[in-house]
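Appendix B. Extra example for self-study. Work through it before the problem class; the solution is given directly after the inputs so you can check yourself.
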Amino acid sequence: MTTNTVVSVSDLEKTYGKPNERQYTALKGLNFSVAAGEFVGIMGASGSGKTTLLNMLSTLDTPTKGNVVVNGHDVTQMRGNQLADFRAQEVGFIFQDFNLLESLTAEENIGLPLALKGTPSKVMDQAIHEVADTLSIADLLQKYPAELSGGQKQRVAAARAIVHHPAILMGDEPTGALDSTSARELLDLLTTINAQQQMSVLLVTHDPFSASFCQRILFIKDGQIGSELRRGDLDRREFYQQVLNELGTFNE
Amino acid sequence: MLGKLALAGIKNRRRDYLVLLAGLTMSAAIFYMFANLATNRAFLNANAVVSSASVIFGFGAVLLILITVVYIMYANSFLLSMRQHDYGLFMMLGATRKRVGELVFLETLILGTIATAIGVVLGLLLSKFLVGFLLNALGLHLKHLTAFYLPAIVATVVLYVGLFILASLFNLVRLTRTTVLKLLHSDELANQPKVNPVWQLIQGVLGIGLLALGYWAMAAINDLQMAAIPLALVTITIGTYLLFRATILTIIRALRHTSWAKKRLNGFLLGQLNFRVHNYTRMLTIVSLLFAMALGAITVGSGYHRQLPLMAQRTGTYSVAVHDPNAHEQKLLDRLDSAYTATYTQKRQGKTVYYNAAELKRQPVEQRAYTKTGTAKHVSRQSFKAFQKSGIKDLDFLSLALTKAGSPYAPKILSAAQFKQQAGQTITVTTVRVKNLAQDLGTLKRLNQLEMARFSHPAEMTVGNYQSYTLMLGMFGGLEFIGYFLGIAFLAMLASCLMFKILSGAPGDQRRYRMLYKVGVRYHLMRHGIAKEIGILFLIPGIMGIIDVLFGLQMFKPLMPAPMSPYQGIGLTFLIFVGLYAIYYLITLALYWRIVLPKTTDA
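Solution. Structure tokens for the complete assembly:
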């Protein structure tokens, strides 16, 4: 494994159900890697295994077979607190349904990963304000999630995901609940973060528009990688067309 | 069809329904047990010697009704929150509001009726066992106390079914007025209480003022008479509520700006508390009142239980006197933990009883000294000379030989030689002063019974402070029983109130803790967080309740005349009660952990 690989997945398998029951294999021997600073998309239809894969990568679920190495940690070997700490320190998450704690203000939500690490409050305040400026949500910090629009909520969630400078940012359909303007804004932000902070981004989506912001797209079908698309020097629009074409034939 | 759907919905959540039903049943059972005592005139008249006791009982009933009303409101809102998603779904599928309204009405009413019916039966059984158990444990004998009392059943059924009809109507109105969308997404709404510092201050001051008024009213029960209890009840309830509202929110807000709040899950904890502070203040007020009621009642009950023997022990000298003890009685006498035992030979002739001077010298008769105001002091033994002058006239000594009419024989002391020649009926009498009357009550009771069986005039034949104890028990035993009984009833009520707190808060918390889990919060941090949150919910009403009781015991001063005191020895009672409360806390915590913490496998 080279040092500039952030995620490396080998022979990943996941089977649901007990051995004596009807089993269902969601992932069938997946292999791929994400380099540092890369913006990778994972696409596939409903039931193709996208979410299962993301759960494996983020340690929310354990694989049946195979290895997942994230930033040098073999997550399949971790237990208990190690897993929690790994999620808290190495990974930033953005979920489709935001997953903001409605009892905390935006500021407190963003500060949560730092508070978990035991960061001194001064350092914490600084980090929060920095990230809030990056995402232009500085004026929303004192509000509660219930007072924010969907797009604003997702930007707060994004701030929480990157405030502690994780090795990789994972998004599970982050634009799924947003209108098209908010979605585009968020994707632009992710692109900026990716470019400026050299933070790897892994985006799981079934939306070709979102995927067109990525540099590389892996298409999953029935638990296996069906094909791969690289953006290369194409601009986003052209890449978008290419993704649409690929999708047009991929599911045939 | 809709009825079938509704039934299926209930089936799916049968666990929640079971707990709801259990809570309501428990509440109805407790109410029945209480009503059984409170409405039983014959029992009250026969046992409540002090007239204000029945007044206290009356207000206890009013208070219990108030708590029951709040309790049912609480349970009802839980029921509604459980069902509104389903009802919203029915309406979305095209059910008319009228039809859904009927369903809501029927469901609430049926649930309530079932709970009431089971509750009354349970209350009957509990009355039978608890009353029997308590009377046995306390060594009491109360007249006219039965488990089955028709007026109490009627009272319980009327109150509960009445309240459930009201609750059904309330649900009906509420559901038919809410839009379908709101019903479907009811659990996602959030509200943040606004804080106005001036208003907070006014609330705080008003709260403390009302509390002070209430505490004063309880202390001034002699002047205020009947008015004291309702006054205290209203002022303390409102005062507690206002005080909680003013202080809790302010403290949380203040803490949120400290750096402590930015450590680990502290911020989340404060956010949680802040978020639900309105629900919590109501709950905390009820719990603190119930806590105070339970603790106060048990303190008074155990106060009597502990102090009656103490007080009896301070009357007279010996605990029991046995005439001509037979082998069985001697065995029992030997079993007593005696501080002083003496045996005298009497010769009775005419109206005179003769004693042997040698015996009296060898085993002096004890005297109790009294202060000028009549308070008992220590026990002492006079010299033989002094005894001949004063001690011989003591009632305790005179009572060792009573005629059949109940008047004492005139005592006369003879020298050993004269005594030998004196004619008359020879009887020995053994007096025992025990070290601790409370400990030897069982043996003393047996001895007393045996004496009664052997002599024709039993009541006059056994004297001593065991006898005083039984007399006092007849006077105050009713109060002792009521104290324990109410204490246990309120404690049970407290438990089921907290249960609803768990149930109504858990679904929302489940979601929140799953989010925390995803974000990478360690398990033990989440456990600690929950322990702190629930701990605070237990601690605040506990402290408030103890303060309430410390002031409230003033009310019982007239009922516990000196040398008894409602405050004497309360430390141990408080300790035991707090221990019980702590066990409640641990059980609640374990339950909450199980419901709320995410399983490692589900994401």
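Self-check: The CA atoms of residues 40 and 219 of chain A lie 11 Å apart. If your reasoning did not lead you there, revisit section 3.
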